[in-house]
Design goal:
Helix content is 36%, strand content 15%. It is α/β, with parallel strands linked by helices and 313 residues long. The chain has two domains: 7-101 and 289-299, no CATH class; 113-267, no CATH class. An eight-stranded mixed β-barrel has the order 1-5-4-3-2-6-7-8. Helix 2 packs antiparallel against helix 10.
Length: 313
């Protein structure tokens, strides 16, 4: 058994500024994690159950994100979560100081489809993106010999989304970013009928990080920069600053997510997807903020520390 860390044994004690609800649920059941990626913007962690956490040094919030102002340089390989602290390298990060983050409620007014399309086109023009007249042409020859049995009965677009999972460059493959933008748009303002199959295929076809982000998008959850742009489209707000901030999400992830949003808008009503009206919002999957204290308390009940997981993929 690995001995439990103690706050007094670390060099740096850091506060957490905010934590996404999915991240909070993950740490409440996972006392260990492995470091699977280090970037200038933060550190990616993976639990034994393949849940991803992003320890971010930036202020942008998201469902998987734990925000801290302290930039950790001595990282190590394993992480322990004990008594409301996340121990990584020579740092102990206090988790009970965090504000629980969840997306803002849906806008009170949703503009008609022509206005949404005009706002989307404004963003596409600013980002120098051209969407083919046939939305599915964003993907190239998606069919393969195994698709008939696995994806029988799906629309061609849904099949294309699945068969291109894991393709393209980037920390999250570029085609996955398109899928994230597509699913986020449809599920924040409605429900996409192929969510469950896409989640299942994502965990089989692409990286663990992408699969986690795709699963979040099926719940209408994503980095706040993506949600802000989707809301701008649905309210007709040609907010260039919001777009520019989203384009800073990853090297090219924000741009590809915009392409996915375009796919969703161009297929939203033609596919019969229902736009959720403000008077009939979707069921909120996240807790009432008033429950924050209770949730945080239950997440940090003392526990024994098990053997560290195998760090190999």
């Amino acid at each position: 058994m690995t001995p439990a860390r103690h706050v007094g044994t670390v060099l740096h004690l850091c506060n957490t500024e905010s934590i996404g609800y999915v991240a909070l649920k993950t740490i409440s059941v996972s006392p260990t994690a492995s470091v699977v990626g280090v970037t200038s913007r933060g550190i990616f962690l993976r639990t034994p159950s393949k849940q991803i956490l992003f320890l971010s040094f930036e202020p942008h919030r998201g469902p998987l994100t734990i925000n801290t102002a302290h930039k950790i340089t001595n990282v190590g390989l394993s992480v322990q979560i004990i008594d409301s602290h996340l121990f990584i390298g020579d740092a102990a990060i206090r988790l009970d100081t965090a504000n629980l983050w969840q997306p803002d409620p849906l806008p009170s007014t949703i503009v008609p489809l022509p206005t949404r399309i005009a706002t989307l086109q404004h963003f596409l023009n600013r980002a120098n993106v051209v969407i083919p007249s046939e939305a599915r042409n964003l993907f190239h020859n998606p069919r393969d010999s195994s698709s008939h049995t696995t994806l029988l009965g799906m629309t061609h677009l849904a099949e294309s989304l699945i068969l291109n999972l894991g393709k393209g460059p980037g920390l999250t493959p570029s085609h996955d970013d398109i899928v994230i933008g597509f699913l986020l748009t449809l599920n924040r303002y409605g429900h996409y009928p192929h969510n469950d199959l896409i989640i299942k295929e994502a965990y089989a076809r692409t990286t663990t990080l992408s699969a986690n982000l795709i699963e979040c998008a099926t719940q209408g959850l994503a980095d706040e920069r993506l949600i802000r742009v989707v809301d701008c489209i649905f309210t007709g707000d040609k907010n260039d600053r919001a777009l520019d901030e989203m384009l800073g999400w990853g090297e090219s992830s924000g741009l590809n997510a915009l392409k996915g949003m375009a796919l969703a808008i161009k297929n939203f009503e033609s596919r019969g997807e229902r736009v959720v009206s403000p008077s009939n919002p979707p069921v909120n999957l996240l807790p009432n903020p008033k429950l924050h204290s209770a949730v945080m308390a239950s997440a940090f009940e003392p526990r024994c520390t098990p053997e560290p997981s195998n760090l190999a993929d």
